[in-house]
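tokens incoming
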């Protein structure tokens, strides 16, 4: 039996609550989650739980659990009517690239099933047989945000980035806000210019 066929038989078991996601991690990655990671996997797999917060110091395995949850989502949530799609984000673009996305690569390399079914690249994880509809992409929080009633766009409502760049900081009453970074764990923005309108 092929690796993919064998894994398909396990997917129904992996989707079983409450510990299917934990079995997925143990079998696909050969890893034993810490007790708090078990709790996070159980919560993530439960569709009744809409939000989860991970708050901890540096180094206990937050990126690991996020990568496990992302792989669990991609590997187990396809249906006959649709493929799972999502994005992975982090507090900064550098943290996303160097920590979380690298963690996805590490665990991809540890699973024969994931290596057979998905491709990992710096810009996307995609199912080999449905790359345009079954994927996970990294997306960083924006560094700059416009507050405006309208933006330069085409007739089909596509934003014209070149025109935005050419507008500068605060033309025509628009206000540009810049993200200050991750001080105190916030995603705070500060106003770059005074709205003269």
């Amino acid at each position: 039996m092929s690796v993919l066929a064998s894994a398909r038989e396990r997917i129904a078991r992996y989707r079983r609550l409450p510990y299917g996601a934990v079995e997925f991690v143990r079998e696909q990655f050969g890893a034993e989650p810490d007790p708090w990671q078990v709790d996070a996997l159980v919560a993530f797999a439960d569709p009744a739980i809409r939000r989860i917060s991970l708050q901890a110091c540096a180094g206990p395995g937050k990126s690991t659990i996020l990568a496990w949850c992302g792989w669990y989502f991609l590997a187990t949530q396809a249906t006959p009517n649709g493929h799972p799609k999502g994005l992975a984000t982090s507090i900064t673009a550098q943290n996303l690239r160097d920590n979380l996305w690298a963690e996805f690569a590490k665990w991809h390399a540890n699973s024969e099933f994931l290596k057979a079914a998905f491709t990992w690249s710096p810009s996307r994880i995609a199912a080999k047989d449905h790359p345009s509809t079954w994927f996970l992409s990294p997306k960083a929080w924006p560094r700059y945000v416009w507050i405006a009633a309208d933006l330069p766009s085409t007739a089909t409502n596509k934003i014209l980035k070149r025109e935005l760049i050419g507008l500068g900081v605060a033309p025509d009453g628009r206000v540009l806000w810049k993200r200050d970074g991750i001080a105190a764990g916030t995603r705070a923005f500060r106003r770059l210019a005074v709205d003269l309108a």
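note: The beta strands are 85-88, 118-121, 124-127, 135-138, 144-147, 175-179, 189-191.
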